[in-house]
Amino acid sequence: MIIRPRRLRINETMRALVRETAISADQLIYPMFVVEGKGLKEEITAMPGQYRYSVDMLPAAVKDLEQAGVKHIILFGVPAPEAHDAYGTAAFIKDGIVQRAIHEIKSHSNIFITTDVCLCEYTDHGHCGILDPDGYVNNDKTLAVLAKTALSHVEAGADMVAPSDMMDGRVAAIRQILDENGYINTPVMSYAVKYASTYYGPFREAANSAPGKGNRKAYQMDYHNSREAEKEAALDVDEGADIIMVKPALAYLDIIAKLRPQIKLPLATYCVSGEYTMLKMAVDSGAVQPEIIYESHIAMRRAGADIIITYFAPELARFLQEAK
């Protein structure tokens, strides 16, 4: 026998020498939910170990993240029910929940803040855009509101914006309004390939964002489709996106791997709430070892993701620090 691949697996030192894929805390983004009120740290029932924070509680939470080694967060606003309306007005007001959260965090920390740009948390019908009388989400009317929302986040101090609504043309609309207002260096991370997935279930409790009627299949992608991902990603590249995202992650590794050779921009993926909860419950029950969390995120990197949005960011960052 001449060829023995096991020679390169003989011990950890050798395995580490020839390891093809690695992950760094620099590549992790942690999602945070901010709610109205004071002194609040509410555990999300459907996502054990994850919390909603009032604005005043964010600096302490961010400090804990930084101590763990996390350098990036993405903010989701959960306004008071009375702030909801048909147009998602609370998404772009100057003293909105996300805008105040950005100010509060930036007054205590230099952590990199990305904001989710969408209307589902702010509309009284729970959809990601403005509805026509027949209940159809009006794409073009929604673009102006999304653009105003993105601008308001950047004016409040956001470092990057991430539109997740899946309206056609929203990257171009956001890029245009940012450039016109002097924010030419603010990047846009587009949820370019976002499937209408059942893996989002726990998030909708966390963000109070479930649609009142119907579903989002008329604007989020059909999970039966693969080639469509290439079209969506290419369109957002052409519109000026700086980073392209695939969402969800684990059930869509084939999509990440397909896009990787085509997309020359950084490629992100989002390990979403349902994926988090399944892994968390499996580990907590003792059914699997905690290392499955690391292994699952290595799979995302191996498929081609440069950036991972994940609720496991603190655990992974600590694990990576201890492994040094």
Topology:
Layout: H1 12-17, E1 28-35, E2 41-43, E3 51-54, H2 58-68, E4 72-78, H3 97-106, E5 112-117, E6 130-131, E7 137-138, H4 139-156, E8 160-163, H5 170-180, E9 189-194, H6 201-206, H7 227-239, E10 243-247, H8 253-259, E11 267-271, H9 273-284, H10 291-303, E12 307-310, H11 313-323
Parallel strand pairs: 1-3, 1-4, 1-12, 4-5, 5-8, 9-10, 10-11, 11-12
Antiparallel strand pairs: 2-3, 6-7
Helix pairs in contact: 3-4, 4-5, 8-10
InterPro entries: ALAD (IPR001731), ALAD_AS (IPR030656), Aldolase_TIM (IPR013785)
Keywords: Heme biosynthesis, Lyase, Magnesium, Metal-binding, Porphyrin biosynthesis, Zinc
Catalytic activity: 2 5-aminolevulinate = porphobilinogen + 2 H2O + H(+)
Sheet with the most strands, sense and barrel status: 10 strands, mixed
Query: Helix amount, in percent?
Result: 25-40%
Low-confidence stretches: none
Kindly state the number of beta strands.
12
What is the overall number of helices?
Answer: 11
Helix/strand order, N-terminal first: HEEEHEHEEEHEHEHHEHEHHEH
